[in-house]
Specification:
Elements lengths: L1 H26 L4 H7 L2 H5 L12 H12 L9 H6 L14 E3 L6 E5 L23 E3 L23 E3 L6 E3 L12 E3 L4 E5 L14 E3 L4 E3 L14 E3 L6 E2 L13 E3 L4 E2 L15 E3 L6 E3 L11 E3 L4 E4 L13 E3 L4 E6 L11 E3 L4 E5 L11 E3 L32 E2 L17 E2 L6
Parallel strand pairs: 2-3, 3-4, 4-6, 5-7, 6-8, 7-9, 8-10, 10-12, 11-13, 12-14, 14-16, 15-17, 16-18, 17-19, 18-20, 19-21, 20-22
Antiparallel strand pairs: 1-2, 23-24
Length: 439
Amino acid sequence: MARRSTHHASWLHLHLAVRLSFLLFASHQLPRCSLALSANSSRSSSRGTSRVPALCRSQEAAALLQLKGSFSFPTNNCEFHTKLSSWRSGTDCCRWEGIRCGGITGRVTALDLSSSCPQACGGLHPALFNLTSLRYLNLESIDLCGSQLPESGLERLTNLRVLMLESCNLSGSIPPSFTGLHSLREIHLSHNTLNGNISNLFSAHSFPHLRVLDLSSNLFEGTFPLGITQLKNLRFLDLSSTNLSGGIPNSIGNLSLLSELYLDDNKFSGGLPWELSNLTYLTVLDCTNSSLSGQLPSLTSLIRLERISVSSNNLMGTVPATIFTLPALVELYLQVNNFSGPIEEFHNASGTLFQVDLSSNQLTEITLPIGYLESPPSISADIPYLLKNTVVKNLKNELLRQWDQGRGQSTSIVAGLGPHPDWSIGVDEVFCIKPSSFY
């Protein structure tokens, strides 16, 4: 009881002290930020006065206003114009929409004007390069009206970590000065009309910290940039639709931390290098429609692979049986190639495998366990005949008359006819005749 009374008295004393402290603060009409800091006043006093976030530097505010003035807006009804409406002279630019500053220095560290405003038009104003503390720059989907990356100026942004200029209507080549951005972790330049040869643009010296490189959907020329294979920290690489030619270098196996690789829609020659098996962190491999030839390499070491697409190439030979047993594989697209021979390893297929397309090849047999009929993956194939326990998607009804082999035993045909098992409901053009209802 004594302990409870003592505790109550102490609490009352503290309550009165706090209330008195509040009244004293109020009587001196301290600003709101002081009240917010009062709870930590005793702890702060030993370290001195608490820091107040610095205001934006006047020269950087002026640079931002110059950048704003470089854009034209035929209409005010767009998100981009709304963002810039908060950019007003005489106000703290650290409070402007799309701006973030360093709390101590007041320097601009982030600029995010990403939006979609087809009516806006502008360029990369030189004033932008006066923001030398910038770490994050995002102008995604802003129409830069066919502007080119400047020959000089961009290299002044030596602190830049993330550069996002996707879908900005950029044209021209990437200038050599771009390689001066040594601090970059992410480069996003996709969906522009950038051109020129990029074979010598990337190296470990220029971009030692780079983790994400997306150059997709541009008009480059030349071969696969060998310097990219020196970027040991790279996790994401997208060179799809970049008009690259030549072979995929064996040194791509040096990118041991790579998680996603997109090389689709290019004009490569030769095959997939066997060194891909070194990319043990890879989850996505997409080389669709890239003029590849040769055989599909063994990928058994890629235990994290979830999606493989090598469709619409000139790959040949047998499909490696082990590809179906990759433990994380969900999607496998091998259609429109010249693969041949039987496929008999579906009985060992990974339980994660859901979507498989083998159509438009020269395959002779595809054998599945009967259990796949109850809850099968989506299987697509064009083969000349069906054997025991075969499941096929998109089988044209008019071809059924040619496929008499194996009928009557435990053949399972997927076609546009019924009766349809439960798993086919809601799936376009995927139906099955179960063995029990075949005759």
